[in-house]
């Protein structure tokens, strides 16, 4: 599934992010999700997500890389994987990692498919702030696919926009403990296996 805009002209812009003591400089080309700056869902995720003390973490639908790069800079001990279906997003995430002197694994592919191919699993946490344009089916695939890829005690953290009540019901079906945080029309759901 492709939910990004191809061929949109214009020059990339730099955005500066400072949150929870972490500073990032990110190049963002036009056409990528949230290309004018952080959207409210990403702000919610960065402000309230749990960043583990150790292990592997995964950012599904990484876009230009802000969430995965934030986790790596917040805790350099983490092994960070970032996946996006958009080749432009993968390219810019790699560039942003270099610009911020961070070593992460950025892979092109649809949700978990490239990691399954590589045999990478047992994540401490999986995070995602999927754009609405990705569609409910893609978001549901991210949620349903997480438990088998998390290590025992691992968590999934997903941001849903208005109307995402179905997501909370799905979390309660799949995870033993579920937390919810709402802010400005967005909901951060966190579930543990």
TrEMBL record:
One of its GO terms (molecular function) is S-adenosylmethionine-dependent methyltransferase activity. Residues 27-189 form the Methyltransferase small domain. Transmembrane segments: none annotated. GO terms for biological process: methylation. Keywords: Methyltransferase, Transferase. InterPro entries: RsmC/RlmG, SAM-dependent_MTases_sf, Small_mtfrase_dom. This is Methyltransferase. It comes from Ignicoccus pacificus DSM 13166.
């Amino acid at each position: 599934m492709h939910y990004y805009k191809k061929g949109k002209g214009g020059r990339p812009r730099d955005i500066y992010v400072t949150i929870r003591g972490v500073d990032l400089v990110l190049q963002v080309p036009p056409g990528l999700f949230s290309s004018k700056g952080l959207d409210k869902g990403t702000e919610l995720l960065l402000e309230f997500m749990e960043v583990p003390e150790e292990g592997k973490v995964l950012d599904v639908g990484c876009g230009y890389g802000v969430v995965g790069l934030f986790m790596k800079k917040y805790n350099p001990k983490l092994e960070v994987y970032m996946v996006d279906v958009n080749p432009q997003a993968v390219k810019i995430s790699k560039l942003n990692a270099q610009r911020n002197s961070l070593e992460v694994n950025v892979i092109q592919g649809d949700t978990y498919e490239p990691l399954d191919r590589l045999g990478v699993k047992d994540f401490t946490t999986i995070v995602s702030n999927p754009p609405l344009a990705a569609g409910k089916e893609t978001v549901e695939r991210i949620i349903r696919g997480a438990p088998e890829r998390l290590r025992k005690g691992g968590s999934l953290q997903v941001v849903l926009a208005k109307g995402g009540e179905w997501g909370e019901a799905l979390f309660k079906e799949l995870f033993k403990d579920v937390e919810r945080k709402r802010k400005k029309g967005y909901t951060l759901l966190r579930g543990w296996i």
